[in-house]
């Protein structure tokens, strides 16, 4: 079984991740990796990462899919340069999906 992700930036630097097609109430591990050519800061539920210069930052959080196998998660990414983002989700029922956003400037 594999899930589906919809990952989008908004104009303020908020990264929104919506998941679908996971098993109902499946326990999920969402991993966010940000590669930037300048300083960056990432904040989200229980997350704060900051760096200056070229960097690779990663964070993981545990989520639970809802009754329909979906979830929603957001983080704010502030970068002084372009950022490359990878979102990967693994479920305890074998679900696995990854989405890569090519270099862009958040916000």
Please explain how this structure is put together.
The chain is an all-beta fold and 107 residues long. The chain has a single domain, classed as Immunoglobulin-like (Sandwich), CATH 2.60.40. It is 0% helix and 65% strand. The protein has no helices and 9 strands. The strands form 2 sheets. The protein has a 5-stranded antiparallel beta sheet, with no helix packed on it. It is elongated, with a radius of gyration of 14 Å. The relative contact order is 0.34. The model has no long low-confidence stretch (mean pLDDT 81).
Keywords:
single chain; 107 residues; mainly beta; Immunoglobulin-like; five-stranded antiparallel β-sheet; 9 strands
**What is the name of the CATH architecture?**
Sandwich
Shape: elongated
Instruction: Give the strand line-up of the largest sheet.
Output: 1-2-7-4-5
Radius of gyration: 14 Å
Count of helical regions = 0
* Overall pLDDT score: 81
Structural class assignment: mainly beta
Secondary structure tally: strands: 9
| CATH topology-level fold name | Immunoglobulin-like
| End-to-end C-alpha gap | 34 Å
Whole-number count of domains:
1
Largest sheet descriptor: 5 strands, antiparallel
Low-confidence spans: none
Beta strand % = over 45%
Give, in order, the helices and strands. Answer: EEEEEEEEE
């Amino acid at each position: 079984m594999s899930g589906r992700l919809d990952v989008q930036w908004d104009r303020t630097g908020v990264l929104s991740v919506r998941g679908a097609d996971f098993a109902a109430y499946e326990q999920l591990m969402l991993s966010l990796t940000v590669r930037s050519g300048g300083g960056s800061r990432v904040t989200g539920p229980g997350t704060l990462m900051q760096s200056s210069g070229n960097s690779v930052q990663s964070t993981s959080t545990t989520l639970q899919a809802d009754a329909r196998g979906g979830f929603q998660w957001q983080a704010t990414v502030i970068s002084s340069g372009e950022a490359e983002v990878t979102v990967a989700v693994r479920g305890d029922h074998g679900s696995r999906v990854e989405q890569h956003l090519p270099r862009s400037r958040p916000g």
